[in-house]
UniProtKB/TrEMBL annotation:
All copies of domain RNA 2-O ribose methyltransferase substrate binding, residue ranges: 29-105
Gene Ontology biological process: methylation
GO molecular function: methyltransferase activity
Domain of life (superkingdom): Bacteria
Keywords in alphabetical order: Methyltransferase, Transferase
Stated family: Belongs to the class IV-like SAM-binding methyltransferase superfamily. RNA methyltransferase TrmH family.
Descriptive protein name: RNA methyltransferase
């Protein structure tokens, strides 16, 4: 059992709270049972170490510890003081994992770069994507990733000017969805829009000034929702570069929806028009 909170290993894990360290090492920390469980279940090849307290070793034996050991992952028993020293949150709930940012990543970045990662997504012929441009709030970014996962999106695309999706606040707010679908980071927005268009994917700017109401938007063809900054929305040049500008109708007295809520509404509208396997459209939705 690791019991020294001042050990070098402990300091190296805690250092992952800094973006510069995450970028240099190509690793990040996942705190709490939900995130660790999903990392072990869906991204075991990227999990470097799992740390659990004695209590958590028993509590999460079936859904975390045994699957981790079955995948030949390192599972380390640590004291509660050590886990507290490793974690960025006040209540890490007895379990923490260190995970590679991308499979095989070293020195803080995938050698192939964002363009290659986007190309890999496009090779799968996606039908539903979401692009975050200049999204700075960790909670919003994480909630959009979670909503995209729930709505069946094929990937989440993130601009280079947006928040680091591997920061602890974003990771926690994804509730494990970070490990369920591709999340491509570091993208240039203008180049990404051009690339999507070249692959036959319509780009839909979500904006309160849109002339097309969400219920009237044709969401049956492959498309990508483009979401802007929490405070100022989408720049004119980004809106102008998209194929359509769509707004969510406000029926009550609310001035607007926040970014994460608007993104979830748009993604679920897309999911309703998205054909199921075999070409069957869910009952109650127009095809």
């Amino acid at each position: 059992m690791l019991t020294n909170p001042r050990a070098e290993r402990v300091r190296s894990v805690r250092a992952l709270s800094k973006r510069s360290v995450r970028e240099r090492t190509g690793r990040f920390a996942v705190e709490g049972p939900q995130g660790v469980r999903e990392a072990v279940r869906y991204a075991a090849a990227r999990v470097r170490d799992v740390y659990v307290t004695s209590e958590a070793l028993e509590r999460y034996a079936l859904d975390i510890v045994e699957p981790a050991r079955a995948a030949n992952l390192w599972v380390h028993e640590v004291s509660a003081e050590v886990l507290a020293a490793m974690a960025e949150t006040d209540a890490p709930q007895g379990v923490l994992a260190v995970v590679d940012t991308v499979d095989g990543a070293r020195a803080g970045a995938d050698a192939a770069g964002p363009a290659a990662a986007l190309a890999a997504v496009l090779d799968t012929h996606p039908r539903l994507l979401v692009l975050l441009t200049n999204v700075r709030d960790p909670g919003n970014a994480g909630t959009v990733i979670r909503g995209a996962d729930a709505a069946g999106a094929d990937a989440v695309l993130v601009s280079s000017a947006s928040v680091d999706v591997h920061s602890s606040k974003v990771v926690r707010s994804t509730a494990g969805s970070l490990f369920h679908l591709p999340v491509v980071t570091g993208l240039d927005v203008e180049v990404t829009l051009e690339t999507l268009r070249a692959h036959g994917i319509r780009t839909l700017a979500a904006d309160g000034a849109g002339s097309t109401l969400l219920p009237d938007a044709d969401l049956t063809a492959p498309h990508c929702w483009v979401m802007g900054n929490e405070a100022w929305g989408l720049p004119d040049e980004v809106r102008d570069a998209c194929d359509d500008v769509v707004r969510v109708p406000i029926h009550g007295r609310a001035e607007s929806l926040n970014l994460a809520m608007a993104a979830t509404v748009c993604l679920y509208a897309s999911a309703g028009q998205r054909p199921q396997r075999g070409g069957v459209t869910p009952a109650g939705y127009r095809a």
